[in-house]
């Protein structure tokens, strides 16, 4: 796991009240038809006072579409530094040389900050041997792995992360949706068993989020929205949980600043539009 002291202190000291959303998307979802782009996301970030959003493509069946959306994310990140950062979301079933070449360009040249295994979108389990290449690359580049959990079949269940998270204990592993409501308890148990597992609880009920913070600590939980329209819902959920001020700062920014190689921002959390 990375040394978090410098990035944590630099980020938090320079951005009091920061709000980092670790789960955003560009492109069109093949499963739901949901679409989003840079203009819509930035407008929503301004409305809700979000400092930085980490963005990945929706899982797409066509490789050309995936490449196009990754390029759009890279362009948005270059135009709005420290507001948008990219997450690699490439089919892990590609041959390793092809996967490492494509992901490496995004990590090394476009400054992406994580790699994603979209278990539902690509119909693959994180403990499938084909996904080892994702963890190997993350270990080599010093970035976390994000994994879709809890919706889409048995290959998305949180316990499927235990084996690779155990083999790659130096790689922070983020369970996106933290089991997606129905499997929140399984996600919590997985995180208890593997200290390099962190939970992003978008779409989870408030009482489950409260359990995550109480059982794991706020330093293992991070804010994510998934969809633009879901941002106010997720914010309201954390209000209902009634975190302490210290827990709130941790979940809203400090956990993410510890896990992801983010560039410190110079300004505080933007003013929320009326």
UniProtKB/TrEMBL annotation:
Keyword Lyase annotated: yes
Top-rank taxon, per record: Bacteria
Gene3D superfamilies associated with the record: Metal-dependent hydrolases (3.20.20.140)
Amidohydrolase-related domain span: 20-262
SUPFAM superfamilies: Metallo-dependent hydrolases
UniProt-recorded Gene Ontology molecular function terms: carboxy-lyase activity; hydrolase activity
InterPro entries, sorted: ACMSD, Amidohydro-rel, Metal_Hydrolase
Keywords tagged on the record: Lyase
Protein name stated in the entry: Amidohydrolase-related domain-containing protein
Source organism of the structure: Micromonospora endolithica
